[in-house]
Each structure stands twice: as structure tokens, then as C-alpha cells.
Design a protein that fits this description.
Receptor-associated Protein; 409 residues; three-stranded antiparallel sheet; mainly alpha; 16 helices; single chain; 3 domains
Length: 409
């Protein structure tokens, strides 16, 4: 049976940037958006749910062990996108992936397939049976359920998740070597302070005032550490356990972001990477016929808690109140001037999604350069800092030993 036309009230901008409102007919939100685009209007909002709303009340959460990790989710979406892109029906593609074995991805695919057979939509099945809670992925899939372009939507969602994981991998890989070096250096220094230096203390117990200042400081620190080493060891165990727990729960990233935002250079690096991913997501959503306000709400939800999320929430409110996206972004000081200009061109040309995607590629190149420069500077700086720490400690230790020998003989 042919689907009935629906009426939508809209708010949109024309090629000159003027704000217009009215009504338009379409089969659904995506169809109404296409009608407005054909009229030379760029829709800001429609009056019905565009797929960017909050998850349904009472939505079932996946059972224990059913939640896929970000890496597993990315691999799952990539495999599903490849099969869907070859004109294989989604249910059959899920069956193929589900027959792969008893690994988490195969089990999740089987659960999603069973949910589809029971009549659920793919977005609902992904959320409830595979634990996919990323608002960007769910919004893209919901839009594709209407437009029918599921393979492309899944490919875009997988690409966005892979970009996030790639940035995290590069940072972790770049910091792994200096982190291990710092840990080994501190452990070695602690062992010297706790196990070796106290053996010299009986030789100078009665004439500590003749030892140089740095030597006395070394013996004082050694005495404190030697007395507190059980508590220090327990603290280290708790700290390592807390880090591992936070990493498994997905809380380590936000904590590191908050700490990094207190360092000016790191804050600039994080901001550029966040805005690059944000524009990539926004361009992908707008290119898939999602309204501007809906896309901004999805982007705000997918942004980690912090200054950027607060700014994007304000941008969303400003756009829904009639401001142009370029103006709202400029007021929040989130993007460089050249990126604002690219967005302004997209508004005037009626190709905001394409121009935003192009801007995200330019910002990605700049973000990659910043990250590479940061790692190139941070690694040798950390090595030099560790070397100075060990050098000063050894100098103080040897000066104390020389003083001990002078006092004894």
C-alpha cells in the first residue's frame, strides 16, 4: 500500500542566508528535507522527530557480556557495511557474520539478526542486542532505514569510529615508550632510596651535620620512603587497579581529557582533534538529509562532557533560535577563521554538508601535524627530564658517600 503524504512545518535558510518558515509535504522527514533542498532551501528543523531524540524510555539494555567494546563495534559495523554494500540483505549479512563462531562480534550479530526477525528495526536491535549506544551510529542507521542506503550509512559510521580509535591509538603508542621509561626510572630510583641508601646511614648517624645539603636531603627522603614503602606499594597497586578499571569502563579517556585541558598546549591539541571529529560527524549527518538542528543535537550528545560539549549545546540553541551556523560557531570561538569561512560558503551555496566535510579533512591534516609535533617534542623532553632527575639524585648520593668516607677515614 502506498505510504500517505505527511505535512511538516519547517524552518530553513535560502541561498542568501535569510531565514524562512512554512509547511512542506513528504512521505517522511528525509523526503521533506529533499523537497526543501530542491527548492533551494537548507532546512534547520522540522516539527517531528528526526532520529536525533533521546533513546526511548524503557529501552532494554544488553545482557552482561553483550556490550561490544568500541573496537569490536567498529569491526562489526565495518564487516556489516562491506556485506550490505554488496547488495546482500541486512538480515542475511548478519547471519553470515553470526555464523563465524562464538566470538563477541558473532554472538552480537546473531542476537541482532534474531531481533530483526522479530520485527525490530536495525537501529533498535543494535542498541538493545549489541549495546551500541553511540548517538552518531544510531542516527545514521535510523536515517538509512528510511532512505534505504544502509551500506553507505554503516560505512560512514564505521569510518567515524575508526577515526576516533586511530587518534587514541596514536596518542597511546606515542606515549607508551616514554611512559615505560619514566616508570622504570622511578622504580629504579625508589629501589635505590629504599634498599641501598639506608645501609650507609649508620656510618654517619652521629655526624650527619658534616654531610652536604644535597646528601642530607637524599638521606632524609630515603628515610621517609623506607618507612612508608608498604603504603607506597599498596598505593601503587590501587592506582594501577584504578587505571585498569577506568579503562575497562570507558572512564579513563574523559579523565585524561580533563587533566589535559589544564595544560595549554595539550588543551589546544585536544580541541583541534575534537573539532575535527565533530565536523566529520556533522558533515556526514547533513549529507544524509538530516536537518541541521537534528545533526547538531546528535553531535552534542556524542561529544565528551566538557567545554566543547557545553559550547556545542549553545551553538545548537543559537541555530534553533535563528542564527546561522557560521555565526554561532564564531561566537563560541571553537574553530579557526578559515574553517568558519568554509562553513559560510557552504551556507550560501546550499552545500553545507559537503563544505563541512571538506573542512574536517583540512582540520584533520592540521590535527595530525599538531599531534606529531607534540609527540616529537614530548618524548625527548620527558627523557631529558628523567635523565636530570636521575643525574641529580646520583650526584647527591655520591656526594653523600664521599662525605661518609671522609668522616670515617
Amino acid at each position: 500500500m502506498e505510504q500517505a503524504q505527511k505535512t511538516f512545518s519547517y524552518v530553513a535558510r535560502d541561498a542568501s542566508g535569510a531565514r524562512q518558515s512554512g509547511v512542506v509535504s513528504g512521505l517522511d522527514t528525509n523526503d521533506a528535507t529533499r523537497v526543501l533542498r530542491a527548492q533551494g532551501l537548507f532546512p534547520i528543523s522540522l516539527d517531528i522527530d528526526d532520529g536525533a531524540s533521546a533513546p526511548r524510555a524503557g529501552a532494554r539494555k544488553p545482557k552482561d557480556g553483550a556490550h561490544l567494546s568500541p573496537r569490536q563495534t567498529s569491526d562489526f559495523l565495518t564487516r556489516l557495511a562491506k556485506l550490505s554494500g554488496r547488495q546482500i540483505q541486512t538480515e542475511r549479512a548478519l547471519a553470515i557474520i553470526g555464523d563465524g563462531g562464538q566470538d563477541p562480534i558473532s554472538r552480537a550479530a546473531a542476537r541482532v539478526r534474531d531481533s530483526l526477525r522479530e520485527g525490530a528495526a536495525l537501529s533498535q536491535a543494535l542498541e538493545e542486542k549489541a549495546g551500541v549506544d553511540d548517538p552518531v551510529t544510531l542516527s545514521l542507521v535510523k536515517g538509512a532505514e528510511v532512505s534505504g542506503d544502509m551500506g553507505s550509512a554503516l560505512e560512514t559510521a564505521a569510518d567515524i569510529m575508526q577515526n576516533r580509535l586511530e587518534i587514541r591509538r596514536r596518542i597511546v603508542t606515542g606515549l607508551m615508550y616514554p611512559g615505560i621509561l619514566l616508570f622504570v626510572a622511578l622504580m629504579s630510583l625508589g629501589l635505590i632510596m629504599i634498599a641501598i641508601i639506608p645501609q650507609f646511614r649508620p656510618l654517619i648517624e652521629d655526624r650527619i651535620d658534616l654531610v652536604p645539603v644535597m646528601g642530607r636531603a637524599v638521606f632524609a627522603v630515603s628515610g621517609i620512603l623506607a618507612g612508608l614503602w608498604p603504603f607506597i606499594l599498596l598505593t601503587l597497586i590501587i592506582l594501577v587497579g584504578g587505571i585498569l578499571f577506568a579503562a575497562r569502563r570507558g572512564m579513563l579517556g574523559p579523565i585524561l581529557v580533563r587533566v589535559g585541558n589544564r595544560i595549554p598546549f595539550v588543551r589546544r591539541l585536544l580541541l583541534r582533534n575534537q573539532m575535527m571529529l565533530l565536523l566529520h560527524v556533522l558533515g556526514a549527518l547533513l549529507s544524509r538529509e538530516i536537518t541541521l538542528s537534528g545533526a547538531l543535537r546528535v553531535v552534542s550528545k556524542s561529544t565528551p562532557t566538557g567545554t566543547v560539549r557545553q559550547s556545542m549545546t549553545q551553538v545548537t540553541q543559537d541555530v534553533e533560535n535563528g542564527a546561522a551556523l557560521s555565526t554561532a560557531m564564531r561566537e563560541q570561538n571553537l574553530l579557526p577563521q578559515e574553517a568558519i569561512e568554509m562553513i559560510r560558503i557552504g551556507e550560501e551555496a546550499g552545500d553545507m554538508g559537503g563544505m563541512i566535510s571538506r573542512t574536517s579533512l583540512d582540520m584533520r591534516a592540521a590535527a595530525d601535524r599538531d599531534l606529531e609535533r607534540f609527540l616529537l617534542l614530548f618524548q625527548p623532553a620527558l627523557i631529558v627530564g628523567v635523565g636530570l632527575l636521575i643525574g641529580v639524585s646520583l650526584y647527591a648520593l655520591f656526594s653523600a658517600i664521599v662525605s661518609v668516607n671522609a668522616i670515617t677515614f
